[in-house]
Write a structure and sequence with these properties.
Layout lengths: L1 H11 L4 H23 L10 H10 L3 H4 L2 H5 L1 E3 L6 E3 H46 L3 H14 L5 E6 L20 H8 L5 E3 L13 E8 L3 E9 L12 H14 L5
Antiparallel strand pairs: 1-2, 3-6, 4-5, 5-6
Helix pairs in contact: 1-2, 2-3, 6-7, 6-9
Amino acid sequence: MKEIEQLADVSSNGASADTTAEMNQAALNTAALNEVALSSGLHASAPVSEVDIAEYLKKYPQFFERHADLLTMIHLPSPHGTGAISLAERQQLAQRDKIRVLDAKLAEILQFGRENDATLSKMHRLSLGLLAATEFSILVKLLEHNLQEDFDVPFVKLHLWATLKSADHSANTPYFAPVDGSFMQWVETLNNPYCGKKTPANYSVEQANSYAVLPLKTSAVIGVLVLASSDEDKFYDGMGTLYIKRIGELVSAALLPYLN
């Protein structure tokens, strides 16, 4: 440790922070080299690389317990460009940076949790509304109202190519109006909801810039529920469709008693 004592004297006699940092680092290298060489059965003058030193310090962290004074004497460049700082200060800064990253991740997870809770509440209200409907016309009105008000979807289009079990005025509504054949065929090929800025088939909604297309299925495809928005970022390719798919399943099950 003679070299370290000499470096400490130089530092106290007015050496610059950068010079002191370089000399203290040299002292650490010398001390570590000696210990690495001794622990490896080598002569102190034998060549030892920085990799050897790093591996030794990871394997024997008690090195700094035996040479605790090094922690206060070694100075490293500040990551914030404010000169040299001690090894202990550098470790504190590194820990603070890690804590900031973890805090940001935790805040993101909490936000996701709040959003999921809100979505689950909306899904619950939708389920209750569909269960409470006693007529087809009431069911579709509840569906449209819930999606527009709770889920903030301004354009809700229901197209059915099944028929009603009992004839009533609903059969003359737009829900059963014929749709483009290519759009119908495309819907029947969907295994999952489609989300994007436009539909691949010949279908569009005026003023809509993004779409979610939900195939309605029982034993076969009975129709389609189209959700559209003027916000082009409302529905986009690659977005998660778990809740959208569940809406399609709920609507399909709710329609089943009324359709052939």
